[in-house]
Design goal:
This protein is mostly helical. Helix content is 90%, strand content 0%.
């Protein structure tokens, strides 16, 4: 009986970790797209807007994106190791850890969207001189 419960716990643990890995893969993909888009926005700022504040915001967000990407890649490796070799049950604590990573990701996306709105509002005002 104890073996069956242990097996069910392990299957549940693996399923939850797999779900987290799938979601994490999506987050990393989104951050890769943001990185590419930041490069394009940097060119727009340099060629058209020439606004040092926007340039500083782009560079700051690019650094933050890189740091979050690194943190998520490290988290991905931890999850893969836990999936393959771990014996720790998937608990509320582990779920909260994953939620904290999601919050960091969502916060970065919100910051990126705000930067785009700022750039777009400057582009709307832009006129050829």
């Amino acid at each position: 009986m104890d073996i069956e419960l242990s097996y069910k716990t392990d299957v549940h643990r693996r399923l939850c970790i797999k779900k987290d890995l799938i979601e994490l893969s999506h987050w990393i993909d989104v951050l890769s797209v943001i990185s590419s888009e930041l490069e394009q926005l940097k060119l727009i700022e340099k060629q058209l807007l020439k606004n040092s504040r926007i340039e500083t915001n782009i560079l700051g967000l690019r650094r933050k994106n890189t740091l979050v990407m690194g943190m998520l890649c490290k988290y991905e490796q931890e999850l893969k190791i836990e999936y393959q070799y771990g014996k720790t049950e998937y608990t509320l604590t582990r779920a909260k850890l994953h939620e904290n990573k999601r919050d960091i990701h969502v916060s970065l996306i919100q910051e990126f969207n705000q930067l785009k709105k700022t750039i777009y509002s400057h582009l709307i005002k832009y006129q050829l001189k």
